[in-house]
Each structure stands twice: as structure tokens, then as C-alpha cells.
Design brief:
The protein has 201 residues and is of the alpha/beta class. The protein has five helices and eight strands; from the N terminus they run βααββαβαββαββ. It has helices at residues 16-31, 51-66, 99-102, 118-126, 141-150; strands spanning 11-15, 70-73, 89-92, 109-115, 130-131, 133-136, 155-158, 173-174.
Length: 201
Amino acid sequence: NTGQSCIAANRIYVQRGLAERFIPAFVERVNALKVGNGLEPGVEIGPLINPAAVDLALSHIADAQAKGAQLLCGGQRHGDAGSAFLAPTVLTGVPGASLGMCDETFAPVAYVNVFDTEAEAVARANDTSYGLAAYVFTSDLNRAFRLMESLEAGMIGINDGVPTTSNAPFGGVKQSGWGRELGTEGLDAFLETKHVSLSLG
């Protein structure tokens, strides 16, 4: 989906003890992604919806850098000027006020930040007006249950990067929508709730 999915993760928070290993490995994997025509064998990253979407992503990348973020890879159009392809991009040390941390970039751009405590990670993850999906990767079941409660998102994947299925409710909180699609909860919008009070006296 080239990051053009409403549940695609752009903001990534990595615990400091893992960051030294994770970030270089992540950048190496991102650099290895093959960009091109999605109909060709081996291609992993296709075009964005149009060149204007690339312009938007580039503006988010430039804004992050202007506010102090470090560009680790990508950050430019892939191919000729006007191309709808964007080189997969990773930035780190991205301030919370950056456009990409506040708005949807809808592109193959990852904003990676390091945290020290669980409370800090939750506060930073929730520091947005959106709340469609969140993801937690942990081997600590107690932490998983705490984060299910504290993260402000309508859908949470625990060690699962694709937490959606047709029999589960799909929807978000805050400015990520109202109500749910799919699952039995998806029927609620088409039903009328009726309260009946019956006196037997």
C-alpha cells in the first residue's frame, strides 16, 4: 500500500535499550525495498496516488528536518521530477510539532523516536488528534494489557501489524471517526434502539 492505508504506521517509538540495534537494522531493510511498477516481480513499493501526494510527503519530510529531525534514508522523489514514486524514508528525532507527527503523511515515511519509559511512550503516542490504530510489540503480557487500556485508538494490534478482519469492528476515536464498520457492531448504525418500560402493577 506504499503507506497509503489509513492504518499504516508512520510514528514508531522504540525503547532506548533496543534503539541502537533496531534503527540501523530498520534503515537497512527500508533501503533494500525495491521501488517500481507494482505489476513487476519483486517490487515492494509502488507509486503514490499522484505526484501531489509525493509533494505532500516531501513537505512533511522537509518540515521535520527544519525542526531538527535527522534523515536516515530516502527523503526524495524516486525517478524523474513529477514522478509519483517516493524513495522509502526514515527520519529519527522527530519533534512532536512536526507536520508528519500531527497529520497523515500517507506515504512510505517512518518517523522513528526513542523513549525511556512506558508512560512517555504512551503520552507521545496519544499526543495526536487522531486515533484509528495503534500497534504494540512486546513479550510482556502485563505491558500488553496496560497498553490496551491506555492507548487512545479504536484498534490495537499486539504483536500484529494487520489487526483487521471482517468479523471485528473497524473504527477509531477522536478525529478518526465515529461508529464502527464490520463485526456485529457495524450493524448498530442501521438499527434503532427502543426502550420499553412495562409495569405489571
